[in-house]
Every structure is written in structure tokens, then in C-alpha cells.
Design brief:
The complex is a heterodimer of chains A (178) and B (55). Chain A has 178 residues and is mainly alpha-helical. Chain A is built from 8 helices and no strands. With 55 residues, chain B is an all-alpha fold. Chain B has 3 helices and no strands. In chain B, helix 2 runs antiparallel to helix 3. Chain B starts with a helix and ends with a helix. The chains are: A mainly alpha (178), B mainly alpha (55). At the A-B interface, helix 1, helix 2 and helix 5 of A face helix 2 and helix 3 of B.
Chain lengths: 178, 55
Amino acid sequence: MTAERRRPQAADVAVERGRVNDIVPLLIVAGGVLAASALADRDKTVAGVKKGVRMFVGILPSLLAVLMTVSITLSILPANALAQWMGKDSGPTGFVIAALLGSVSLIPGFIAYPLSAILVKNGVGYHVIAVFITTLTMVGVLTLPLEARYFGLWTAVVRNSLSLIGALVVGGIMGLLW
Amino acid sequence: MVNPAAARMRIPAAWMFPAILSAAVAAGWFVAPSFAVGVASHFAVFFVEMIVFCR
């Protein structure tokens, strides 16, 4: 494939530096609150930090897998492919791709939102992201058998179908507004 | 019988997919270095985006 590969440019690095400066007050506040917590109850604070680290390590494999997959995909795809397929002027193609991806993938929300931010940065339209996130959370093709076991096949199919229609409506409204 | 040392070194199931992708990209370095560098630079930026900025 003769794809033109994009890499972070100098301008991106400057933007990142600016955002590092933005995040410093937040880190100071977090450090201060942690110190206050440690003064109040050292054992509970240590237990809380340990729990946080365990949770972080727990989500790290999924996070890394998504990051790597996105990195590989963006390296393979031509520079304007995402914007062309799922950008503001992509029309129904973007809706269909987003609905398919959102319906079949099993990505937790806390990974889907930052992933969506990356996609928006790469030219994907907000209406497509809306369809992607809505189908991701409300439509589950892979989990349909499991859902059917609890609620019955008919209920599961109707719920998923209505959710898919709802996602497309949400995407349409987002497309009109943004 | 499984060697205990080997059992300890086994990759947990959750880490298997990231490990395979890492190995694939690392192997890609020998075939197409620019591709591997492109993936690594994207990954570095996204990792900072997600972890440091919690977005």
C-alpha cells in the first residue's frame, strides 16, 4: 500500500506543551488533596492509592490494545482517509461505518471517549462519533445471545433495533447542529 | 509437568493481544522501519493524550 503516513508534527508538540501547562494546576490540586488525605489517615490513603493503581493496571491491557490498534490503523491509512470516509461531508457512508463499528465492538466508555477525541482530531465528524458512541453503548451484536438469554430473543432484537434507529437519529441531529 | 519458572513467565490472557501487536510492530521494524516509527510516534502521542490528560 502506498499510503502517505502521518506523524506528529512540530505544531502538535507545541500544542501538547501548552496542554502540559494547563494540566499543572490540576496536578497541584490533586497532590494537595492527596497530601491532606495522608495527613488525615495515612493507612486509608495508602489503601486508596493501591486500589487506584490496581484499577489502572486492570484497564491498561485494553487501553494499550486500543491505542496500538488505532496507531497501526492510522499509520496504514492515507492521511485524509478518515476525514473522507467519516468526515463532515462523508454522508451516509460515515453513518454506516460508525454504526457497524459501534455495534460489533466491545469497548468500555472510558476508552471509547478518548478514542473518539483522537478520531475527531483526525477529521472524523461529530455526527459520526455520536453514532459510534451511541451504538457502542446501546447496540451489542456480539452480546445479543447473552442478552437474549435473560430477556428473550424477541425483546433483545427489538431493543437493539430501536437503539440502532435511535443512534442514527441522534447522529442526524448532531449532523444538523454541528 | 509445567516448569514453575515457565508458568510464571506466561503472559496473562488480558495482555496477550497488546503483546502480539507489540511483537508485530517490533517485527515490522525489520521490514519497514518507517512504518514501525510511524506507529510508535502515534502511540506515544495517544498514550500521553490518554494517560496524562485523562481524556
